[in-house]
Amino acid sequence: MVDDSMQALRDGGSRTSRLTANWVYGALPFALLLIAFSPFVDGIALPVYLSLPVYMLHQYEEHDADRFLKNINLLLGPKARGLTHASVWTINVIFVWFLLLGVFYVVRVAPGWGVVAAYLMAINALVHIAAAIRTRQGNPGLVTAIVLFLPLSAWIFAIQPASVVQYLAGAALIVALHGGIAFWATRRGA
């Protein structure tokens, strides 16, 4: 079986298919660039700002060579819809990058909403850990989920002046996001 992204490049593929198959290779240098700018962000917004480049580092570990896509589709089996390059791109760029960017802007005016970034990382880390325990093997993204997500989430939770409503809304949003992804991936193929 020929790797989809390499086949798309050989065939010329559409720009969209090349973008959705290779997006993660822009995440790594962009993450390093964002980290380099972090000294210019201070106070309560700093850990929320760092959540985007840290998430990008996690995405590189997770998605390089389509490791996550192949792993999840293998676990789900042939009857599930599974994930495609387009769905992985949508999840990671639209629902992660833009969500974290939005949270960073909101935190500048309403700091308590930073818990959304913490929940995004913490719940993702718990899913990686639970999957590793369940399958008794590692999975793409497990290392950065433990080493980067858990400490950064704890830092955000510790310093954000969030209300009970912000905690509950943040948790509900991220659980719904993960639930939607799981629902889409596990549906029977059309």
From TrEMBL:
Any Pfam family: HXXEE
Protein name: HXXEE domain-containing protein
TM region(s), chain numbering: 23-50, 86-107, 113-133, 140-158, 164-185
Superkingdom of this protein's organism: Bacteria
Keywords: Membrane, Transmembrane, Transmembrane helix
